[in-house]
Amino acid sequence: MPGTLLYRADPTADYGPLNPLTTGRIRKRTITENWDDLLRLAGSLREGTARVSQILPVLAGQGRPSPLSRAVMQIGRLDRSAFLARYYHSELFRRKINTQLNRQESRHELARRIFYGQKVELRQKCKEGQEDQLSALRLVLNACVLWNSVYLQEAVNQLRVEGHHVSDADLARLSPLGHDHIRMVGRYHFRLSP
Fold first, then answer.
1. Which of 19, 20, 37, 21 shows the shortest CA–CA distance to 74?
2. Which of 105, 118, 179, 192 has the maximal Cβ count within 10 Å?
3. How far apart are CA 158 and CA 96, in angstroms?
4. CA 173, CA 171: separation in Å to the nearest integer?
5. Please, which residues bridge with residue 40 across strands?
6. To the nearest whole number, what is the mean pLDDT of the chain?
């Protein structure tokens, strides 16, 4: 990944072929000085006593990052560096990431097919109207996924009843996000004579 900067916690550590990429340094002191606040922040998020929408303005400050915000950034750099090192190192991990990206893109494609009107744009001016549109889209999308999941399972069950072997590897490749069989605009019959 060109232009990607990895951070190292130990400036003297040898990371082999990743040494040229690990030029950033983690400020461990920033993390240790704010450790108690970091634990309180993580606990508040985990227990649900504070919402992300309440915490983000505090972390953003007023143009200048707070000490807690700087500590969160240092931990984020560590986490991102560990993730990217694993990504570089493991072909299996890269495949898993690619599979997840493909699934998410399939979900977006299904959402675009469902939300075909209005050039796939939110047309409501107010936030509540947009939330209503997105909620309706999620409801229909989830209904399609549920429908597909139920009928995929029925098809697998029928194959097994007929004596066909269905392996776990085959099942892992199935996706309930297919939509070519779904009529997005329905089928209408008009009787012209009374």
1. 37
2. 179
3. 29
4. 5
5. none
6. 87
Each residue of 95-125: b (16+ CB within 10 Å) or e? eeeeeeeeeeeeeeebbeebbeeeeeeeeee
DSSP state of 131: H
CB distance 81 to 10 below 8 Å: no
Alpha carbon distance 112, 130 (integer Å): 16
* Residue 36 CB partners (closer than 8 Å, separation 6+): none
Dihedrals phi, psi of 7, to nearest 5 degrees: -110, 145
Q: Among 24, 21, 20, which residue's Cα sits nearest to residue 8?
A: 24
> Is the full-model pTM beyond 0.70?
no
Burial class (CB in 10 A: 0-12, 13-18, 19+), 152: middle
Looking from the CA of 129 toward its CB, the CA atoms found within 13 Å total: 6
CA diameter of the chain: 88
Give the range with max mean pLDDT: 16-20, 125-129, 145-149. 145-149
